[in-house]
Task: structure prediction
Amino acid sequence: MQLNVYLSGEIHTGWRDEIIAGAAGLAVTFSAPVTDHAASDDCGVTIMGPEADKVWHDHKGAKLNAIRTRKAIADADIVVVRFADKYRQWNAAFDAGFAAALGKSLIVMHGPDIQHPLKEVDAAALAVVETPAEVVRILAYVIDGRL
Result:
C-alpha cells in the first residue's frame, strides 16, 4: 500500500524531518506547506506586488498558500497536524477542519498540556499522539500491519 501524507502544523521544530526519517523504507510520499516563515508570509507581495496595508499583505500570502494547502490536503490519504504549545496555530486548526470535512484520515499530534483547547480537533481525529515516533508507528501499521 502506498500512502500520500500531508504534514501540517507548526514550523518551528524538526518534527517533520523526524517523521520522514523514521518512515524511510515505507511506501509513503510526504508533502507539507512552505515552512520558510518569511517566504510563506511574503509570497503574495513578492509575486503580485506590494501592499501598503498589512491586512492586504497577509491576505495575498494566505490565498497563495491556500492553493498549495488545498491541493496537498485533497491529494492526501492521511493528514497529520502538529500543534505546539508555544504558538497559536490557527492555520493548523483550519487544516484539520478542512481535512475532516473532506473525510481524510486525520492524525493530530500535541502534548497533554494543550489537550483541552484542542478537544474538538482531537474528536475529529482517528488518532491523537504526542510524538513523531508514534506517527511513524501508525504509518507502518497502516501500510503493512506490523506493530
